């Protein structure tokens, strides 16, 4: 948060500072959620790749048994 932002809300006293804190907290939580979501997407891609490899292996074993 920039000093100008804090100063702008600080002019309204404690209520303004409380609002500034809430805005900062929401922005921080949103940034953290975005990072978690990005990591989750990567993990899902790796999981899908592993499951695909497992499916191919099982199908190959089934064809060898017949």
TrEMBL record:
<keyword id="KW-1133">Transmembrane helix</keyword>
<keyword id="KW-0812">Transmembrane</keyword>
<feature type="transmembrane region" description="Helical">
    <location>
        <begin position="6"/>
        <end position="24"/>
    </location>
</feature>
<protein>
    <recommendedName>
        <fullName>Holin</fullName>
    </recommendedName>
</protein>
<keyword id="KW-0472">Membrane</keyword>
């Amino acid at each position: 948060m920039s000093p100008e932002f804090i100063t702008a809300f600080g002019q309204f006293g404690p209520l303004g500072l409380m609002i500034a804190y809430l805005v900062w907290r929401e922005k921080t939580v949103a940034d953290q959620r975005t990072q978690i979501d990005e990591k989750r997407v990567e993990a899902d891609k790796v999981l899908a790749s592993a499951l695909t490899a497992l499916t191919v292996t099982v199908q190959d074993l089934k064809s060898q048994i017949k």
